[in-house]
Design brief:
The protein is an alpha/beta fold. It has helices at 2-15, 21-25, 33-37, 54-64, 73-76, 85-100, 127-147, 169-194, 219-226, 243-248, 253-262, 290-302, 321-348, 350-361, 372-379, 385-398, and strands at residues 29-32, 68-72, 104-109, 151-154, 160-161, 200-203, 213-214, 237-239, 269-270, 309-310. Helices cover 49% and strands 8% of the residues. The structure holds 3-O-methylfructose in linear form and magnesium ion (MG) (2 copies).
Length: 409
C-alpha cells in the first residue's frame, strides 16, 4: 500500500499545475462534509471507502486550502440526537475543529430526503411529519447561526412521488412553502437576537432522483415557486443551482444561471460535472465538460457573482480514502481555479472583445428601419463572428492562443 500511495503521489506531483493552499483560500470554495465522507455506496453499489469523521474532513480541507465547510444536519448529528443535548456537544466539537484548522462554516442544510420519516416528503399529508419538518429546518437555522454560516440550502429531494394521483400537487406545494416560511421566520428572530445578518435561503432543484416525479424539478420551477405568493419572505429565498442538475434535464447550465442572475436569485452554486439526460453521477468539476465550464465561469465572472462555489461532487468509487484527499479534492479545486483564471483571459481577450464590440455595434445601416432584408444584408458578414468567437474560446481552453502547436507527421 505504501508503494502504491507513493506512486500516486509521485504522479500527482508530475502532473504539476497545482495551486498552493494560500491561493486556493482566496476563492470562496466550500467543501461539503458529505462529499469527502461519501463511502461509495448507492442502490447497486456497496461502499468502497471507510467512514470518516468531521474532524478529519475539516483537517484535510484546512490543509488543502478549502477555506469553507458545509454540512447537512444529519451528516454530523444522528437523527435521534437532533435538538437534544448531544447536538450542542457535537456543534461545540465542530466549532473547535473549524477554529483549529482555520476553516469557516459557509452553509448548513437540512436532510429531508434520506430518513424514513420523509418517505412521503417533508410536505406529507400527515401534520406530524410537516410539524417535524418545520422543527428540523428551524433547528438547522439555529445551527447555522451557531456555526457562523451565511447560507441555508434546501434540496427537497423527496418532494414528489412514484405513483400519480395519490397526492394533490398544489396542496403539497403549499405545505412545502410553510416549512420554508417557518425557517425564514425563525431566521429573522435568531438573527435579531444575535445581531447577525439573516441567512440566504437557497432552493436546489434536481429533475429526478430520488423520486420518480419531482414537484419542483428545475431552477426555473423554483423561481416561479419563490414568486408564487406562497412564501412570506420571498426576498430571503433564492437558488442554489447545481451544474449537473441542469444538464440532467437537458438544460444549458449557463442559460439556467443567467435566468437566476436576472432574477437576482443566484445565491449559491454547487459545482460538479456529468452527462446530459443521465442520473446524478456528481463527477468532479471540469472532467467532462471543460469548455462548457469555461463558458459558465465567463458568465459568472462578468456578472460579479461572489457566492460560494460548493464542491458538491462525489469522489469516484475507484478512488481510495487516501486518494480522496491526495488526488480528488486538490485536482477538483485546481481545475476550477484554472478555468476561473481562463475565464478572466476570455474577458480580456482582444479578439473576443473586438468581435463582441463589432457585433453590438451592428452593421451601421441607416436606411428604412422596417426593411428586414436590408437589415440582414447590413449585418451579413458580422454574424460569422459567432463561430469565430467559439473557435477562440476553444483555442483559449487548449492553450492554442499562446502558440501551443501540434506537429503532424
Ligand atoms: C443531491 C444534492 C444534495 C444537495 C444537498 C444540499 C447531497 O443531488 O445535490 O447533496 O446539494 O442536499 O442541500
Ligand atoms: Mg447539490
Ligand atoms: Mg448532483
Amino acid at each position: 500500500m505504501n508503494s502504491q500511495q507513493a506512486l500516486v503521489s509521485r504522479l500527482m506531483a508530475a502532473c504539476g499545475g497545482s495551486y498552493t493552499p494560500e491561493i486556493r483560500r482566496k476563492f470562496f470554495i466550500s467543501g461539503p462534509q458529505w462529499a469527502a465522507a461519501y463511502e461509495g455506496h448507492a442502490l447497486f453499489h456497496a461502499p468502497t471507502r471507510p467512514a470518516i469523521s468531521f474532524e478529519e474532513v475539516i483537517r484535510h480541507y484546512g490543509d488543502l486550502g478549502i477555506g469553507h465547510w458545509c454540512t447537512h444536519d444529519t451528516d454530523v448529528i444522528p437523527t435521534e440526537a437532533i435538538g437534544k443535548p448531544q447536538q450542542a456537544e457535537i456543534v461545540g466539537r465542530i466549532q473547535a475543529a473549524l477554529k483549529k484548522n482555520d476553516v469557516k462554516c459557509s452553509m448548513v442544510t437540512t436532510e429531508t430526503f434520506h430518513h424514513a420519516v420523509w418517505a412521503a416528503s417533508p410536505a406529507a399529508e400527515s401534520p406530524e411529519v410537516r410539524k417535524y419538518a418545520q422543527f428540523r429546518v428551524e433547528n438547522t437555522v439555529d445551527i447555522g447561526h451557531e456555526l457562523g454560516a451565511s447560507f441555508a440550502v434546501y434540496w427537497p429531494g423527496s418532494l414528489g412521488y412514484y405513483v400519480q394521483g395519490a397526492i394533490e400537487e398544489t396542496q403539497t406545494l403549499r405545505w412545502y412553502a410553510e416549512a420554508l416560511n417557518a425557517a425564514c421566520e425563525r431566521d429573522l428572530k435568531v438573527a435579531a437576537q444575535r445581531g447577525r445578518p439573516t441567512l440566504k435561503h437557497c432552493l436546489e432543484a434536481k429533475p429526478f432522483e430520488p423520486q420518480a416525479e419531482i414537484l419542483l424539478p428545475t431552477s426555473d420551477a423554483m423561481l416561479a415557486f419563490i414568486a408564487s405568493g406562497l412564501l412570506t419572505h420571498p426576498e430571503m429565498v433564492g437558488l442554489n443551482p447545481e451544474y449537473l442538475h441542469e444538464l440532467m434535464w437537458g438544460g444549458a447550465p449557463r442559460a439556467a444561471l443567467a435566468r437566476a442572475l436576472v432574477a437576482g436569485k443566484l445565491f449559491h452554486f454547487d459545482i460538479n460535472d456529468g452527462y446530459r439526460l443521465k442520473h446524478d453521477v456528481d463527477i468532479g468539476v471540469g472532467l467532462v465538460n471543460p469548455l462548457d465550464w469555461l463558458n459558465v465561469l465567463v458568465l459568472l465572472r462578468s456578472h460579479g457573482y461572489n457566492g460560494p462555489f460548493n464542491l458538491d461532487y462525489k469522489p469516484p468509487r475507484t478512488t481510495s480514502q487516501f486518494g480522496v484527499f491526495e488526488v480528488s479534492f486538490p485536482t477538483a479545486i485546481d481545475r476550477f481555479i484554472t478555468l476561473w483564471e481562463m475565464a478572466g483571459e476570455v474577458l480580456t481577450d482582444p479578439i473576443i472583445k473586438e468581435a463582441t464590440d463589432a457585433l453590438k455595434a451592428g452593421g451601421g445601416y441607416t436606411g428604412d428601419p422596417h426593411d428586414a432584408d436590408a437589415i440582414v444584408a447590413a449585418n451579413r458578414e458580422l454574424l460569422t463572428l459567432h463561430e469565430l468567437i467559439a473557435h477562440r474560446l476553444v483555442q483559449i481552453l487548449l492553450g492554442l492562443h499562446r502558440g501551443r502547436t501540434f506537429s503532424i507527421a
